[in-house]
């Protein structure tokens, strides 16, 4: 088992964040790093394709650990029983692959702990290996993420998709991930309040005993991508006792500060922020459209302080964010100690 029993909802802020001096660092873009290392992800399984042969997944986890990440997120965003089934895997073949996403991350953490790789900035700066706290977060992507058509960026599921549809879709994967040794479950790129409600009910119905966070995606800085209010979505997360943090991911950085302020109005739980690079993904062409504002090392060092002052305490990156940027975030926070606000 992982550290889940130690990182209960009531102790996430007072224990883990305190050990991280008040602010924690997440990893960055995963699929884009896999591609940089040579993976061909032109596949409905996307990054989950690499779970079959796991060496690149482990390598990317280690890159982010070396960069200073306190939380690494598993390659299970599109690792669904249904998705593997569509590729010809039986359910009995698919379930171990979902579990494997957590096992690889735990293995990477152990390698990091054992070796404290010389590429780590902590090694370079202090002249000796520096072991920082590390949690493994099991990633759960939205219902339509497994369709691999970019529809999680619209959140328009239609009348045929009900609350029960969503709970039935996610149930088995969540059960597997919760019992695989992960320290928490990260429900990411949540596109609407219906899916947030499904997650909250599922956590309660299945008596999931490890913490979770909900993060939402926005394309206007006011609402989540479906048009549902960020206030309503964050309120659903806030009301769920298993949820230890609420936040935003896969969203342009120009919207982040306002969204933090909006979320802070409805919750005192830690706010987790991991924006994309600022570029826009076209789900139909599967191409990234450039932006005039792009997150890089210099940009990260400037905005992290502003986002922290707005109320966030966990920082990382999503699509197209690299280990270099995560290293810059880690450095920006390394010489600061922030009080942990215990609600």
Automatic annotation (TrEMBL):
Enzyme class: transferase
GO molecular function: S-adenosylmethionine-homocysteine S-methyltransferase activity; zinc ion binding
EC number: 2.1.1.10
Pfam families with a match to the protein in the record: S-methyl_trans (PF02574)
Hcy-binding domain span: 12-333
Domain of life of the source: Eukaryota
Gene3D superfamilies referenced in this protein's UniProt entry, alphabetically: Homocysteine-binding-like domain (3.20.20.330)
GO biological process: methionine biosynthetic process; methylation; S-methylmethionine cycle
Cofactor(s) recorded in Swiss-Prot or TrEMBL: Zn(2+)
InterPro entries, per the entry: BHMT-like, HCY_dom, HCY_dom_sf, Hcy_S-methyltransferase
Binding residues annotated for Zn(2+), in chain numbering: 250, 318-319
UniProtKB keywords: Metal-binding, Methyltransferase, Transferase, Zinc
Protein name, as recorded: Putative homocysteine S-methyltransferase
């Amino acid at each position: 088992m992982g550290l889940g029993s130690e990182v209960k909802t009531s102790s996430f802020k007072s224990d883990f964040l305190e050990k991280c001096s008040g602010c924690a660092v997440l990893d960055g873009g995963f699929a884009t790093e896999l591609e940089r290392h040579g993976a061909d992800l032109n596949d409905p399984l996307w990054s989950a394709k690499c779970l079959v042969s796991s060496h690149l997944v482990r390598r990317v986890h280690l890159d982010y650990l070396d960069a200073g990440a306190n939380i690494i997120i598993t390659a299970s965003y599109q690792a669904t029983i249904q998705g593997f089934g569509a590729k010809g895997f039986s359910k009995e073949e698919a379930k171990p692959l979902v579990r494997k996403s957590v096992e690889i991350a735990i293995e990477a953490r152990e390698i990091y702990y054992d070796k404290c790789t010389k590429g780590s900035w902590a090694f370079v700066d202090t002249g000796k290996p520096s072991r920082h706290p590390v949690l493994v977060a099991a990633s759960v992507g939205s219902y339509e993420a497994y369709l691999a058509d970019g529809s999680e960026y619209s959140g328009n599921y239609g009348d045929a998709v009900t609350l029960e549809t969503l709970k039935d879709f996610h149930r088995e994967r969540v059960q597997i991930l919760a019992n695989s040794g992960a320290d928490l479950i990260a429900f990411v790129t949540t596109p609407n309040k219906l899916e947030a409600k499904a997650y909250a009910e599922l956590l309660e119905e299945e008596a999931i005993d490890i913490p979770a966070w909900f993060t939402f995606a926005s394309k206007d800085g006011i609402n989540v991508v479906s048009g549902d209010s960020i206030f309503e979505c964050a309120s659903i997360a806030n009301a769920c006792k298993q949820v230890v943090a609420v936040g935003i991911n896969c969203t342009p950085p120009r919207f982040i500060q306002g969204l933090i302020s909006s979320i802070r109005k409805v919750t005192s739980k830690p706010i987790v922020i991991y924006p994309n690079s600022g570029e826009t993904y076209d789900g139909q062409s599967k191409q990234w459209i450039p932006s005039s504002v792009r997150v890089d090392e210099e940009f990260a060092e400037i905005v992290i302080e502003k986002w922290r002052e707005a109320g966030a305490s966990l920082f990382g990156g999503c699509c197209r964010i690299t280990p270099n940027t995560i290293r810059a975030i880690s450095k920006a926070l390394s010489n600061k100690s922030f009080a942990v606000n215990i609600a």
